[in-house]
C-alpha cells in the first residue's frame, strides 16, 4: 500500500467531492508521488503532457505539493494551471505569495495535539470520548493569508 492513510483519505475525499461537478473531468488520479519532495517532482515531470492539458491540479500532502510546485515552475506552467495543495510549510506559503500555488489546505496541529491529549486524559479517567474529533481545516489563499486567524495558525500558537 503506497502512501499514508491520511493522504489516501484526502484523495478519496477529493474524488467524492469532484463527483458533484460533472463538468470537471479528472484526467489523472491515483498517482503515488513518492515519499519525498524530490520523488514527487520527478513524478510530476513525467506527467508533463498530462499537465499541459490540465486546468487544475490537486496534491494531497506537503511533499507532493512542493514537488508539483517545483515541477510546474520547471515546465513553465507555474501560474497557468489552478493549483491547490495540502499543508502549509513556509516554502509552500512562499509559493502562494508568488502566485505559484492558488490555495493550500491546512490543518491545525496545535489543536490536534491539544484535543489528542485531552482525549487521552479523559479516556484514562474513564470518560467516554467521541469516536471522531473534528480539529478543522482551513483553505488558505492570497485573500486570507494575512488575516489574524491564518497568521495564528501558521505561527503554531
Level of helix content?
A: 40-55%
From the alpha-carbon coordinates, what is the Rg to the nearest angstrom?
Answer: 17 Å
* Binned strand content: 5-15%
Mean of residue pLDDT values: 91
Reported CATH architecture? 3-Layer(aba) Sandwich
Order of helices and strands: HHHEHEHEHEH
State the separation between the terminal residues, measured CA to CA. Answer: 35 Å
The number of distinct helices, counting runs of at least 4 residues, comes to: 7
Backbone structural class: alpha/beta
Specify the overall morphology: globular
CATH level-3 fold name: Rossmann fold
Query: Order of strands in the sheet with the most strands?
Result: 1-2-3-4
Largest sheet: 4 strands, mixed
How would you summarize the topology of this molecule?
Elements: H1 5-18, H2 37-45, H3 48-53, E1 56-58, H4 62-75, E2 82-86, H5 90-97, E3 103-107, H6 109-124, E4 137-140, H7 148-155
Parallel strand pairs: 1-2, 2-3
Antiparallel strand pairs: 3-4
Describe the structure.
The protein has helices spanning 5-18, 37-45, 48-53, 62-75, 90-97, 109-124, 148-155; strands at residues 56-58, 82-86, 103-107, 137-140. The chain starts with a helix and ends with a helix. The chain is globular and about 55 Å long. A 4-stranded mixed β-sheet has the order 1-2-3-4, with helices on one face. It has 7 helices and 4 strands. Helix 2 crosses helix 4. It has one domain (5-22, 31-155): Rossmann fold. The chain has 157 residues and is of the alpha/beta class.
